[in-house]
Amino acid sequence: MSDSPAVNAPLDPEEKPILDSLLYIRDKLSLLKQDRSTYIKSKDVLSLYNETIKQVQVLNDLRKEHKKPLENNRVDNVLEDCFQLISLFFLTIGRNNEAPAVYSMCSTVKRLLDHLSEVNFYSAKDLDGIESTFSTMRDTLQRGKESYSPHLLTLLENRLDTCHLILEELYRRLENLSPELVPTYEKLVSILRSMAACNTRNTFPAGEVRAFQEQLVQIQATMVDGKFLGKNSTVPQGQEIVGNLLHRCLVWADLCLEKNGKIDERFKPTYGKLLEIRNQLEKLTLTQAWSLRETDLYNYQRQLDRIDESRIDGNFEDAQGNKADLHTQRTLLYLIRRSYAYIYGLIWSSEPVSEALLPVFNQLQTLRRCLLEVKKSGGVSSPRELYPYSMKLNSIDNMRTDGKFMIGSDIPEGQGSVNALLAECFDTAYELRVEAEENSTSEE
């Protein structure tokens, strides 16, 4: 396994034993990630977490002694890999609400914020979602102060603070946008993203792009003397922001139609790799409950990081150092950003249930959806119609031992979530049965 992408400083010889230990830990994490013969056990993850924290303490003491607290070399890169894997393992075993699980989300959010800052077009809704995630992550760290190493907590708190500074700056950029212009601005953001997506289709949808182009022309036609007007012909604040975005959209529409979805041959390999990553992540969002092991996201993250950090001064360049044209540049960046957004969504929607209990949890979720749909459509005419649901619920209930779902002698994480869902299904089925019996009695 290669290291996380980063610029490496020379390695201090005294840090070599730490590097060797971390490489060994990373290898063990990688082997555990690849083993599909059984589910991931909490004790295995916690053991590797503790080994990693031990090396962090040794590293911090050494750098403090040498007065190099901000050193960044290969040790830090391998340590980043270890924490990233451990974080995803915590999600896999259902310990989503514990401090180590925050690491992977924090890294993904940082990437997304950096890209939003770079591209400089986004809506307040994009930022609000991330702000909510920050609140959840900070709550998780607060709860973990008594349970987890201060070395990890300090690292995560510093990362969150860095991310929050970027978020505040992004909010500030929208402060000069009048509420009257927000609908137009958000419409333009949506159109620009949609046209970027059109470039990545198997067959370029020229008609769709022309339709977007017509919408842009219609928006432009609402301007009077080059300005967007508000109520009573006032000139709302934020003209430059919306005007620049409109111009950007019009130029992009022309460029998309001119290129007809064709990417510069020099960058086809990078485009193909990013397209494959995006498509695989998109598929995972549709089948997440049944097919995702959160540690699978690690490989996608690392591939994206390497491609993203291969840019020079923000530009993709070929082997001869020639920059990509604007069309190729924006299309590649769109795929990177979309892929990071998918990873963000997959981590956020991960259930706090061990993968060992996910089959049962997913079955109960399906049962709940079916029962709620039956209730929504008016219930059942006879209690007998509920027999299939009752039989399935009872079969799941009989899997428990002393109220717990056991896997051999192990008690996987997520018992509370699964039991609560089971109870909710029983309650809904009971309500439907009572309602059906009452209806039958009244008819008699």
Report on this model:
This protein is an all-alpha fold and 444 residues long. Helices cover 67% and strands 1% of the residues. It contains 15 helices and two strands. The chain has helices at residues 16-34, 42-65, 74-92, 102-119, 124-143, 150-173, 182-198, 206-221, 239-259, 268-291, 297-309, 326-348, 358-376, 387-397, 415-443, and strands at residues 400-401, 404-405. Strands 1-2 form a two-stranded antiparallel ribbon. Helix 7 runs antiparallel to helix 8 and helix 13 (358-376) runs parallel beside helix 15 (415-443). The radius of gyration is 26 Å and the shape is globular. The mean pLDDT is 90.
Mean pLDDT: 90
Number of continuous helical runs: 15
Gap between N and C termini: 73 Å
Total number of strands: 2
Going by helix content, strand content and strand pairing, the class is mainly alpha
| Biggest sheet record | 2 strands, antiparallel
Please bin the fraction of helical residues. Answer: 55-70%
Instruction: Write down the secondary-structure element order.
Output: HHHHHHHHHHHHHHEEH
Low-confidence stretches: none
Radius of gyration: 26 Å
Oligomer: single chain
| DSSP strand content | under 5%
Output the strand order for the largest sheet: 1-2
- Shape type: globular
Defining traits:
2 strands; 15 helices; mainly alpha; 444 residues
Q: What does this entry show, briefly?
A:
By secondary structure, this protein is an all-alpha fold.
SSE topology:
Elements: H1 16-34, H2 42-65, H3 74-92, H4 102-119, H5 124-143, H6 150-173, H7 182-198, H8 206-221, H9 239-259, H10 268-291, H11 297-309, H12 326-348, H13 358-376, H14 387-397, E1 400-401, E2 404-405, H15 415-443
Antiparallel strand pairs: 1-2
Helix pairs in contact: 1-2, 1-3, 2-3, 3-4, 4-6, 4-12, 5-6, 7-8, 7-9, 8-9, 10-12, 11-12, 13-15, 14-15
